[in-house]
């Protein structure tokens, strides 16, 4: 239901017209102005009917009482005029027509005010329990209105499944586009998702005060809730839901596909109240990792793992503050003549309580919690300090440093890099900055300013893990990429996966066409190495060539090889 605009005549002048017309009927001299008054009555009847019907068709149902008031008053006035003209006889009934019409008009007027007040209250409630951007039920609806629906389910002893969708790239998008534009893009994506969900069966419907129903709750800016009434078919529902979420949204030339994680929890077995149910489903979604896909169901193991992650964040924060993380280096090789051309810096963390922790475990946590910025600054400082103390490490070779996509979305990131490399009296040309998830950089001024400053200082830019995730073809050119790193997922499967062969070879050909250095990660066998050489991939790294090693071991390797063995590979 929609009420007329605040600027509409019916909302601005409707009440005034009633009162004015009522006063006119009491004070205008009918005998001296009968013809004028009859014309006025007819004009008012037409105008009032037009306004009233137009407002009613727009959904402003309170106007039916206004129409009731107008019709009786105007009808009484017209009949009273006909009596004056002696068209109708004067008797007890006709003499009472106008007073009765006025009474009925006032009665309708009272009902109109009451209905209007009810409508305003309904509209106020609607705004309180719906999201202003999408019109979907919000957090207030979840905690205030949803319990009433669950009570109905309890009567049938019916099990439900709460599905939590966590759109995890909201922060990155906000930094890339700004909060207002990011909210618009995400709001449009959520609206598109709900439009698709309307067709789904087995989902709980959420009724709103305006008589409409929804199937999706926007609990927070990035947390969406769907409730399945058929948990038996939960896996099938999740697959259908994933297909919907994977559909990209386009708004104002921005192509957006949400990164998401899904967590589920059962009602009432895994949460007797909505707060517990929400917490458990959210915990399940946060347990999702790259290797496990993008969906996880709540279990005791997930609960224990969540506690582990909280502990991990605490320990990581402490070790970053005390600069206890360190780095290894994995050598990179020219695949044409097998000479060493440099190495990739790999962050490492050994905690006194946890032991060795994999980067795939703590890097995502650092990005989620904002620790990534301090982590990147610490790593760059350690690498530059070490390279400055050991100039032979970058005399004829390069070092590649991985940074998060979030780093380039910071104003001043490039300036800090340039200041640091200058402070340590190093050449920026000896360092390559590797970045992933470049799709969030589309048309972002901060990113392009940072990249421009880095290029002007001499740093090289590499797109890491190309072929997976959200690497954007457009940004290969837009970021003036110097190096394209083919993800190890494709490289490691080259011998037994024809599709990986096609994709890998095409990526190498793309690099040649764009005059970009191609780098293959994950070379694990001689057969893979020979294929890459055959396709003329320029640089490679992997356990078949060299395992990651400590900086001391890397320096020893350089000394052992008595470099330079050949001309450095042109990585520009």
TrEMBL record:
Domain spans labelled GGDEF: 158-301
Record carries keyword Thylakoid: no
Domain (EAL) ranges: 309-562
Membrane-traversing stretches: 12-28, 34-53, 65-85, 97-114
Gene3D superfamilies: 3.30.70.270, EAL domain
Molecular function in Gene Ontology: cyclic-guanylate-specific phosphodiesterase activity
SMART domains noted in UniProt: EAL, GGDEF
A matching Pfam family: GGDEF
Keyword NADP (UniProt): no
InterPro entries referenced in this protein's UniProt entry, alphabetically: 7TMR_DISM_rcpt_extracell_dom1, Cyclic-di-GMP_PDE-like, EAL_dom, EAL_sf, GGDEF_dom, Nucleotide_cyclase, Rev_trsase/Diguanyl_cyclase
Key words, A-Z: Membrane, Transmembrane, Transmembrane helix
PANTHER family: CYCLIC DI-GMP PHOSPHODIESTERASE PDED-RELATED, CYCLIC DI-GMP PHOSPHODIESTERASE PDEF
UniProt-recorded name of the protein: EAL domain-containing protein (Putative c-di-GMP-specific phosphodiesterase class I)
